[in-house]
Amino acid sequence: xxxxxxxxxxxxxxxxxxxxxxxxxxxxxxxxxxxxxxxxxxxxxxxxxxxxxxxxxxxxxxxxxxxxxxxxxxxxxxxxxxxxxxxxxxxxxxxxxxxxxxxxxxxxxxxxxxxxxxxxxxxxxxxxxxxxxx
Length: 134
Prior knowledge:
Elements: E1 2-4, E2 12-14, H1 17-21, E3 41-51, E4 55-59, E5 69-72, E6 86-92, E7 104-109, H2 122-129
Antiparallel strand pairs: 1-2, 3-4, 3-6, 4-5, 6-7
């Protein structure tokens, strides 16, 4: 993997992927910190938290594990209109507001597993299962 220094020298460096992805016990990068997503569409996952008549509430854990994202329920695949359903999709994860994510290419999928996608926040999940919005 190659990178450029940001301390003004701008020289190119060769860095192993193991060093880039090394983390401390708290999950923070040991040698490098993640700053932000580059503005572009990323493949990611979402969980359907609830489906009302016109509006579905999704969580895109890679964007933010505790923020609800409203989405028109009519645009969900027919077999995705149940709470707890995992979706594979593309979205612009660099944005700051859920309305700017622009989810597309939605398809029902299996749970990608915790090693590929973080889980929605427990407090957020329990609020939906108890029937009240956070």
